[in-house]
Design goal:
heterodimer, A: about 350 residues, mainly alpha, 15 helices, globular, B: about 525 residues, alpha+beta, 11-stranded mixed sheet, 4-stranded antiparallel sheet, about 35% helix, about 20% strand
């Protein structure tokens, strides 16, 4: 059913883009005027100690050699050691990535569950108060900075009302009690059967997830509305209406299947954006995810960590794109039949 | 199966609803929760790590031979007693001290640790290298007498009682040789391993450290000084001051270590939280590069001193972070001399001085600073002051790694670094301002603040070295006074503006936490009320 030539073509593109991504990030990273050696040996170290560490980190080699070494190691699954933590980068990412994944996944679910119906309603009730309300909601979500919004959310729901947990993933006395399996505390606590910890983790994740979801929802609502309006103007809708199809039938039988493909693309883009774009949210909510890891790495010029995080996010993006392409091909009869 | 799953989901939902309704806020009474930025904690190897937060952590994982109290008295730690004579110090270790691994701490471990400090040759090694110990001579100067006695020979560069303060710092922590040595990789003396493990004999053991997230320490019931009152210490990464304030208010953290002066002011009147301004003995400094001809002119430097509105900065920016002081010795220390009256803020005098110099029309320069409160704000205020007298300055901000490497490379005009003091006397605070053994660029003595400013002060360097060696208290006190007088006379290129304090917010539930200038607060005596 699927076109294999299309598939291999896409895969080839994926590998090529990945290589370009690595090369560009590497060069930019090495050209930044940061001093990873200084960050490690410290302000008062002797020049001799400084030089020794530079050699140990391989920074005395020519750039092209450094790159060659990096790519060779990478092909063997070795992303190097993070200067920032002294751990293999892969090990750091295995801790940071699930934290971000947990947050972004919950956020994308919330934003989709709320955003799509809102967009549909706005389109079907175009120019009525429903449409206006939806417009205001998405405008606000789009324009208010997450930083400000996050702090206000914390002040209201955490400091004043005491309804939710504060920054961090769980309360302090629950730290380190569940054995990490997936690295996502909500899931690990369920696996361990600790519902109290699950509840606590939910009370901590809910606000940052809502903050992220709101911004994503604004986009999803607007796009859903636009897609639906486009369909509503089509002849087949008029025909269906003329046949006496109910609003519900029209929506579920005709419009939704037609915009499903476009919605999947939006979903993939938003999800990718949430995975890499959570830096500010992570800082406000002391969330130890990829965004914070990468920012801190960038600040001290820890190029191994920056590169690895970039590659991981790049791969996620590309895979999401790839999957949405395939979904396209499967759902859209036109692409399916194209030879 | 299906109903089982459904029941699980239902139970989880109910549990989460219940917890969301009554989100628990207060921390448990047996756990101390410290919220601060952990971004700079990059190594927990005591012979490598040097960030202030890392020092706080390591001070509780490791013991040193001796310790110092917040007001600067030396007290026994691993060494129960010691004798100082003209050529050496002999230490008698506590036989009951055990490493977390259960092995007794021996003189062998102490000697191995101090040798490792010098051989690893990272930033903390400078603590001993400034007193004449090097990686080449250290082995010859340390002697194991018996399993619980050791002798440290003096190098002649430093008096015994001054060396003792160096031995009270985290840098000279004693590590468990049997744990660290087997983890040596390519001659790194176990550094890669010890960066994120612990091998000490302190009152707490390390349960986990997840960078930029959390540090968990557990009390050791078998600690030689008795089991700590707390059973757990948690350091949590909370980089944002406002968030820290919310958490401290809610009772989710007990101590907040990275509060801005605005948030500190907020707690001034709040009942649940007390503010401690920990004196660091150090300074916010105006470092001027003498390789820039304009700044090499003493008249220009004095004009700059007088152009800055110190009182304004202190009230509007610093608050609890600092007080005006222009001699690099805190005013409260013994032998401290008074500020010279003609370095105070006076724009007219500043203009007159500049007019008298070779640059009456003014000139342009850059002010570099780490993008960190309150240094950025100080830089901006200095810029405004300079503008008042016709010196056109632009402020360049950068990350710590950036700015420090430019400072090390003499690549700046004016830069705003900060210092700390390693012992509560003139030498501890002033050494970084008064010693520059070789000012040549090739000497590349990048660890030295004076060298970085290319400020050549052979006479002052000589007196400083002499004071370090002097055993007689009266003669030393005389030299200390001389050091400060000469410093003033030389119109410093490394100019102290404000004595530096580190304010922290501490919940009233916490008792016995007294901030320490060298960041070595022991948490075993800290208690918490319900």
């Amino acid at each position: 059913m699927l076109n294999t030539r299309l598939l291999t073509g896409r895969l080839g593109q994926l590998v090529l883009s990945l290589f370009v991504l690595i090369a560009v990030t590497f060069v930019i990273g090495r050209m930044l005027p940061t001093d990873p050696v200084g960050a490690i040996v410290g302000e008062l170290a002797s020049p001799e100690a400084y030089e020794a560490m530079r050699v140990r980190m391989g920074l005395d080699q020519p750039l092209i050699m450094q790159f060659f070494r990096y790519v060779t190691d990478l092909l063997q699954g070795d992303m190097g050691v993070a200067a920032m933590t002294g751990n293999p980068v892969l090990q750091d990412l295995a801790i940071a990535a699930p934290a971000t994944l947990e947050l972004a996944t919950l956020a994308i679910i919330i934003s989709f569950v709320l955003g799509v119906p809102l967009g549909l309603a706005a389109a079907l009730r175009r120019d009525t108060w429903v449409d206006q309300v939806a417009r205001i909601i998405s405008l606000v979500g789009h324009s208010i900075p997450v930083f400000w919004f996050g702090i206000i959310g914390l002040i209201v729901f955490y400091a004043w009302l005491g309804l939710i947990g504060g920054p961090g993933r769980v309360d302090v006395f629950y730290e380190g009690l569940v054995p990490p399996v997936t690295g996502m505390i909500t899931i690990d606590s369920l696996i361990a059967g600790r519902f109290d910890i699950f509840g606590n983790a939910m009370s901590h994740i809910i606000l940052p997830a809502m903050m992220l979801a709101y911004a994503a929802m604004a986009y999803i609502t607007r796009m859903t509305r636009a897609f639906t309006l486009e369909q509503l103007g089509q002849d087949y809708v008029t025909a269906a209406r003329a046949k006496g199809a109910s609003q519900t039938r029209l929506l579920f039988r005709h419009i939704l299947p037609n915009i499903a493909v476009q919605l999947i693309t939006i979903l993939a883009i938003s999800y990718g954006g949430l995975l890499e774009g959570a830096v500010v949210t992570e800082i406000v909510f002391s969330w130890p995810g990829l965004g914070q890891y990468m920012t801190n790495a960038l600040l001290i010029g820890d190029i191994n960590a920056v590169l690895a995080a970039t590659i991981v996010i790049g791969i996620v993006f590309m895979v999401l794109n790839f999957l949405s392409d395939i979904a396209y091909a499967m759902l859209d009869p036109r692409t399916r039949e194209a030879r | 199966m299906r109903t089982g799953f459904r029941r699980t989901v239902l139970a989880a939902l109910i549990a989460s609803a219940a917890t969301i309704g009554t989100a628990q806020a207060r921390t448990p009474a047996d756990t101390l929760v410290y919220g601060t930025s952990l971004a700079q904690v990059i190594s927990l190897d005591p012979h490598q790590g040097q960030d202030v937060t890392a020092l706080e952590i390591m001070a509780n994982l490791y013991d040193r031979l001796v310790a110092s109290t917040p007001d600067g008295k030396l007290v026994p730690q691993l060494a129960a007693s010691w004798e100082v004579d003209a050529s050496a110090i002999t230490f008698h270790l506590r036989p009951e001290a055990l490493f977390a691994s259960g092995r007794p701490v021996t003189a062998e471990d102490v000697v191995w640790s101090l040798t490792r400090l010098m051989q690893l040759n990272q930033a903390p090694a400078s603590k001993l290298s400034l007193t004449g110990y090097t990686k080449d001579n250290i082995a010859d100067l340390l002697h194991v007498i018996d399993p619980h006695t050791l002798r440290i020979d003096l190098t002649g560069d430093v008096a015994g009682d001054l060396l003792m303060y160096r031995l009270s710092e985290v840098a000279t922590s004693v590590v468990d040789r049997d744990l660290v040595e087997p983890n040596d990789v390519e001659g790194d003396l176990g550094n890669a391993w010890l960066r994120n493990h612990a091998a000490g004999s302190g009152p707490f053991s390390l349960q986990a450290w997840r960078p930029n997230d959390i540090v968990l320490m557990n009390a050791r019931p078998d600690y030689w000084g008795g089991a700590p009152e707390l059973s757990r210490v948690v350091m949590r990464h909370v980089p944002e001051s406002q968030i820290e304030r919310l958490m401290l208010e809610r009772g989710d953290i007990d101590i907040a270590g990275a509060l801005s002066s605005g948030d500190i002011a907020y707690f001034r009147d709040a009942g649940e939280v007390g503010i401690q301004a920990i004196p660091t003995g150090g300074f916010y400094v105006l470092a001027m590069n003498m390789e820039k001809p304009e700044l090499a002119d003493p008249l220009v430097r004095e004009a700059i001193f007088r152009s800055i509105d110190y009182a304004g900065i202190q009230s509007a920016i610093l608050g609890p972070y600092g007080t005006e002081r222009h001699v690099p010795v805190p005013a409260g220390y013994a032998d401290a001399v008074a500020d010279p009256p003609d370095w105070s803020f006076d724009p007219d005098a500043a203009k007159a001085l500049l007019a008298e110099s070779d640059y009456p029309e003014g000139f342009a320069l850059t002010i570099k600073t780490i993008n960190q409160t309150p240094r950025v704000e100080i830089a901006t205020a200095v810029q405004a002051g300079l503008a008042r007298i016709g010196i056109r300055a632009s402020v360049v901000q950068g990350s710590g790694a950036d700015i420090v490497s430019q400072h090390r490379g003499r690549d700046f005009d004016i830069l705003i670094p900060q210092t700390g003091s390693y012992m509560p006397n003139v030498m501890g605070a002033m050494e970084q301002f008064s010693s520059n053994p070789d000012n040549r660029k090739e000497a590349n003595n990048a660890g030295n603040f004076v060298w970085r400013s290319a400020w050549d002060i052979p006479e002052l360097t000589k007196i400083t070295a002499q004071a370090l060696r002097e055993n007689d208290p009266a003669a030393r006190s005389l030299l200390f006074t001389q050091m400060q007088e000469q410093f003033i006379e030389a119109v410093p290129a490394v100019f102290p503006m404000f004595e530096r304090f580190q304010p922290i917010g501490v919940s009233k539930r916490v008792e016995g936490y007294h901030g320490h200038p060298q960041n070595v607060v022991r948490l075993d005596a800290v208690t918490k009320t319900e």
